[in-house]
Amino acid sequence: MLPPHFSSNTIVLLCLFFTLLQATPPLNLTLPHQHPSPDSVALHVTSTINASLSRRQLTSSSSSSTCGTGNPIDDCWRCDSSDWSSNRQRLADCSIGFGSGTLGGKNGRIYTVTDSSDNNPANPTPGTLRHAVIQEEPLWIVFSSNMFIRLKQELIINSYKTLDGRGSAVHVTGNGCLTIQYVQHVIVHNIHIYDCKPSGGAVVAASPTKVGRRGRSDGDGISIFGSQKIWVDHCSLSHCTDGLIDVVLGSTAITISNNYFTHHDEVMLLGHDDKYVLDTGMQVTIAFNHFGQGLVQRMPRCRRGYIHVVNNDFTSWKMYAIGGSGNPTINSQGNRYSAPSNPSAKEVTKRVDSTDDGEWANWNWRSEGDLMENGAFFVASGEGVSTLYSKASSVQPKAAAQVDQLTQNAGVFGGPRDDEGQSGDSYSGYGGGGTGAIGGTSRGSSSNNDNNFFGMIFGSNAPPRPRLTLSLLSLLMICVLSTSTLLLS
Ligand SMILES: *[C@@H]1O[C@H](CO)[C@@H](O)[C@H](O)[C@H]1NC(C)=O
Ligand SMILES: *[C@@H]1O[C@H](CO)[C@@H](O)[C@H](O)[C@H]1NC(C)=O
Questions:
Q1: Which of 29, 176, 296, 299 could form a disulfide with 318 if both were Cys (CB 3.0 to 4.6 A apart)?
Q2: Domain limits for position 211
Q3: C-alpha span between 259 and 215 (Å, rounded)
Q4: For residues 205 and 156, is the Cβ–Cβ distance under 8 A?
Q5: Which pLDDT value is given to residue 91?
Q6: Is the CB of residue 50 below 6 angstroms from any atom belonging to ligand 2?
Q7: So what's the pLDDT on residue 379?
Q8: pLDDT tens-digit series, residues 64-106
Q9: Higher-scoring residue by pLDDT: 31, 63
Q10: How far apart are alpha carbons 251 and 222 in whole angstroms?
Q11: Does residue 46 have its Cβ closer than 6 Å to ligand 2?
């Protein structure tokens, strides 16, 4: 059958070659809603801010303090001709950055939460927040009065939902807390979220028809997982067991804006694992946030991906502000970084688990127009240290001098934004002084907890995996079989 010079080795090599050829095309590493040119999105954000601040300067004498602040998100809905409460869905037009175009419950019904209980996570009572968030249809969810919602289990939010806490003081705490998993188009706005604890081992509804047993959760404030088009705006977050906001496993097109973070060790984790290739497409805008008292590290901590950190106020930190590993791109523009008094913690940046600068010399970490206070310094790398980078950004980010103005209303509107001690059991990981606090609460990366994620029982929600699947396996089988047949004959 075969010419004699065809050795079995050649066949094996040929088999491998065709197997690889076959295996490459099905790998699609582009995430849904991933932007092809993240630098252009960042540029658009800075020019939007510039335009908004310029408008404010033109009208400053006449504007009230709630409208015309120069914050492009707030001005978009607070300066609208109609009162915001009669046109709540206007908010959905106001996001900027990678999460812009997040619809939430736009064009859906208004669902009014009237019942603050969470007595039956498997079959929630109509009128509760849990009943609202699991529905399949787009819903704009509002609250009939001030509410303290103590969750029994994670709140699993379905696609096309807005949680709109404007007009009421809405506090969410307990077990969970917010889980945004394998969904799209969710807006979380003006909600207090704190004291979130690990949960699990219980039956929870994820939709009216999908009900199943959940694995253990980490106790994040908001856990964003394999999801796209998510916008978290004007929330106040503190005191959770794990992260305040985690963004992992193929999530992208996300904006985290106008939030008020306090009293927490590991504030924000962006990216699941250094080796998780899909997170290369993770694109997150972090704008106008107030990083306040009692924060230790991870504001954020990034893996892979493109993170635009613009016009935030970092009032202090205990270890570092922005950390990363696995070659993330970090574009820091117009922030105020105010270093702690500890002389060994002045550096804004940290290359996590990386002592060898040969390893990170090419990571693109750049700082432009940032205001460094109290000895803070940013260690740039990659294109960040060369002039190559200046062409990526022809509009100067607005000077950090404007940060006060842009972040003056960060967190939940009105009322206290720092939720320390709201529910009695405050976060114990911070405040012990020294490094004890860090050792005590650090849980490393979420990669330790993968089994929770993949232990999900909801069949239709399989995590995104590269499709190195059957075709490859069957080809290998054929190769092995034919080779051994040949050798035996
Ligand atoms: C890869 O996935 C993205 C997002 O789902 C999609 O837009 C794109 O068309 C896909 N590309 C190919 C070659 O299938
Ligand atoms: C900022 O906006 C103003 C008004 O829109 C414009 O004239 C100016 O050129 C912008 N500045 C930069 C640096 O683009």
A1: 296
A2: 38-450
A3: 29
A4: yes
A5: 98
A6: yes
A7: 95
A8: 556 788 999 999 999 888 889 999 999 999 999 999 999 999 9
A9: 31
A10: 13
A11: no
Instruction: Report pTM.
Output: 0.82
Atom of ligand 2 at shortest range from CA of 396 = 13
Burial of 10 (0-12, 13-18, 19+ CB in 10 A): exposed
CA of 54 to the centre of ligand 2 (A): 7
| 394, part of any domain | yes
The CB of 396 under 6 Å from ligand 2? The reply is yes
Query: Which ligand is in closest contact with the Cα of 48?
Result: 2
Mean pLDDT of the chain: 82
- Checking if the pLDDT of 449 tops 80, the result is no
Q: In the predicted model, what is the mean pLDDT of residues 400-416?
A: 85
Please state, as a whole number, how many other Cβ atoms lie within 10 Å of the Cβ of residue 150: 15
Active centre residues (catalytic): 298
Question: Which residue of 54, 75, 333 sits with most ligand 2 atoms within 8 Å of its CB, as the best mutation to test the pocket?
Answer: 54
Rounded to the nearest whole angstrom, what is the distance from the C-alpha of residue 51 to the centroid of ligand 2?
A: 6
488 within some domain: no
* Angle separating helix axes 8-23 and 470-488, nearest 10 degrees: 170
Give residue 160's region: left, alpha or beta (phi > 0; psi -120 to 50).
left
Distance 32 CA to ligand 1 centre (A): 7
pLDDT at 310 over 90: yes
Q: Is residue 418 part of a domain?
A: yes
Residue 476 has pLDDT above 90, yes or no: no
Ligand with smallest separation from the Cα of 72: 2
CATH number at residue 181: 2.160.20.10
Q: Ligand 2 within 6 A of 59 CB?
A: no
- Rounded to the nearest angstrom, the distance between the alpha carbon of 234 and the centre of ligand 2 is 27
> In the predicted model, what is the mean pLDDT of residues 136-142?
98
Predicted local distance difference test score (pLDDT) of residue 21: 53
Report the SS3 class of residue 186.
strand
Q: Does the beta carbon of 57 sit less than 6 angstroms from any atom of ligand 2?
A: no
58 C-beta closer than 6 A to ligand 2: no
**264-266 and 245-248 beta bridge pairing:** unpaired
Confidence class for position 126, pLDDT limits 50, 70, 90? very high
State pLDDT tens for residues 11-62: 555 555 555 555 555 678 999 999 999 999 999 999 999 899 888 877 654 4
Q: What share of the chain is helix, strand, coil (3-state, %, to 5)?
A: 25, 25, 45
pLDDT of residue 204: 97
Q: Tell which one of 30, 229, 277 to mutate to probe ligand 1, the residue whose CB is within 8 A of the most ligand atoms.
A: 30
Give the total number of structural domains in the chain: 1
Domain-embedded: residue 171: yes
